[in-house]
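Design request, tokens follow.
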């Protein structure tokens, strides 16, 4: 038997983005023997998934899936985790990329024991981006309860540093560092995996749907945080206008999606997310009802069961028709105007709360990546089998909108392609 070469098997791979896709890619690559650089823009790992209340289809908390990956990450010595870091330059090619990284200071070093006394002492506040700005944290904050790394961070845009110094005064382990500066570092890797994921489409651009104008029009990502126990309302779904539990909730599917003026693509997961959120509402109160305004009810493969269960619930109703506009009624009510395309009738429906199912807008298009890296018309990167550029492989929602289980499988595929480059050297 001829011995196979193992040259370059462990060559370094860079993973950009530490959401569920990047996290999966990093642990798979490291367990296959590679040295991995995992670069994440946020102060924590997990991406958008850790901001969800529950996962469909099993409706378990997102920490279940993420925690398994984090456990693997903790026990592999080969992953260099770089949070609050972004790629600012790429040179070279497959087998030898020189990648320039820029790291923003965290302001809190590894001594941090997470005691939280700094938070008590801090006098300044900042909008809580983890809760999509629906509440505030202190300028020194833990991103969320189960954050990894489990360490506080300082938002220097809202911190008075030395002229305040209250957090440093109370810190018993000398963890506070106001002096950190933005640092750059160049690393050499054999291939790159891009897992930069998505952001919610900006609902402010959907003027006719009243977001930002009427308090009781919210987005689907905000709904996830309202329903979450660690969210701004402690897990109670309350109307922003009066903090009362809504009895009638309208879900506006395809808010800006499949629309040439906004996002031309279908985001694949929004219908299921709306069905899931309908369950949040129905389970919160026996008197509550939900109405879905949809173009198509998309629930692929085994996820069809999830839709059928909701269809069988008599407190859930469905209207096939795109919502043309939302206006405001008395006492903060919202009025949805649509055409029921099955009956041909114009419909006006009054609800206590409207939830806009905004789609997935790819982060990669705004990341400042080299112009030669291929994206489609929507800004999603071209993926695995045909690479975005030689030695550059996109995965997860950087490539196309998808649910978590599909992203995890896709990330494993991207690692195989990156591994092939590493072997070739
Ligand atoms: C309302 C809603 C509900 C959903 N509910 C479910 C559900 O119940 N079940 C399910 O399976 N799926 C659900 N999804 C889909 C799920 O959110 C995605 O499958 C998942 O987020 C994809 O993970 P990802 O890692 O590809 O992207 P992301 O979660 O977006 O992670 C990308 C990571 O990359 C980082 N990043 C971005 N740009 C850069 C950069 N330039 N440099 C460094 N880092 C960067 C980000 O900070 C982030 O950490 C839902 C989606 C929506 C909109």
């Amino acid at each position: 038997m001829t011995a196979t070469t193992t040259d370059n098997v462990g060559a370094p791979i860079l993973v950009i983005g530490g959401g569920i896709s990047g996290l999966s890619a990093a642990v798979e690559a490291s367990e296959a023997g590679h040295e991995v650089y995992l670069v994440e823009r946020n102060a924590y790992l997990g991406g958008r998934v850790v901001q969800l209340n529950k996962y469909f289809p099993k409706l378990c908390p997102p920490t279940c899936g993420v925690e398994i990956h984090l456990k693997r990450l903790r026990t592999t010595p080969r992953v260099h985790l770089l949070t609050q870091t972004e790629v600012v330059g790429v040179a070279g090619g497959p087998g030898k990329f020189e990648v320039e990284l820029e790291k923003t200071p965290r302001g809190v070093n590894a001594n941090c024991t997470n005691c939280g006394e700094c938070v008590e002492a801090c006098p300044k506040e900042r909008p809580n981006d983890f809760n999509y700005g629906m509440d505030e944290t202190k300028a020194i904050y833990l991103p969320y309860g189960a954050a990894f790394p489990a360490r506080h961070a300082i938002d220097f845009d809202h911190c008075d540093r030395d002229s305040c110094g209250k957090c440093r005064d109370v810190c018993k382990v000398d963890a506070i560092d106001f002096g950190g500066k933005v640092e750059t570092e160049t690393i050499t890797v054999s291939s790159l995996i891009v897992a930069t994921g998505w952001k919610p489409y900006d609902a402010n651009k959907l003027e006719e749907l009243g977001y930002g104008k009427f308090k009781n029009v919210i987005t689907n990502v905000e709904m996830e945080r309202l329903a979450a126990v660690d969210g701004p309302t402690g897990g109670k779904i309350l109307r922003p206008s009066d903090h009362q539990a809504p009895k009638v909730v309208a879900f506006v599917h395809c808010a800006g999606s499949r629309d040439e003026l906004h996002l031309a693509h279908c985001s694949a997961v929004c219908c299921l997310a709306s069905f899931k959120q309908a369950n949040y509402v129905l389970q919160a109160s026996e008197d509550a009802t939900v109405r879905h305004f949809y173009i198509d009810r998309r629930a692929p493969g085994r996820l069809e069961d999830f839709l059928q269960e909701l269809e069988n619930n008599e407190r859930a109703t469905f209207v096939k028709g795109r919502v043309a506009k939302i206006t405001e009624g008395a006492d903060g009510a919202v009025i949805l105007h649509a055409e029921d395309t099955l009956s041909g009738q114009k419909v006006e429906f009054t609800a206590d709360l409207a939830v806009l199912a905004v789609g997935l807008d790819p982060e990669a298009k705004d990341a400042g990546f080299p112009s030669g890296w291929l994206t489609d018309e929507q800004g999603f990167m071209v993926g695995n089998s045909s690479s975005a550029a030689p030695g550059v492989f996109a995965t997860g929602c950087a490539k196309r909108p998808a649910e978590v289980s599909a992203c995890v499988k896709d990330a494993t595929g991207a690692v195989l392609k990156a591994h092939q480059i590493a072997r070739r050297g």
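Comment from the thread starter after seeing the answer: thanks! Residues 202-358 form a domain with the FAD/NAD(P)-binding domain fold (CATH 3.50.50.60).
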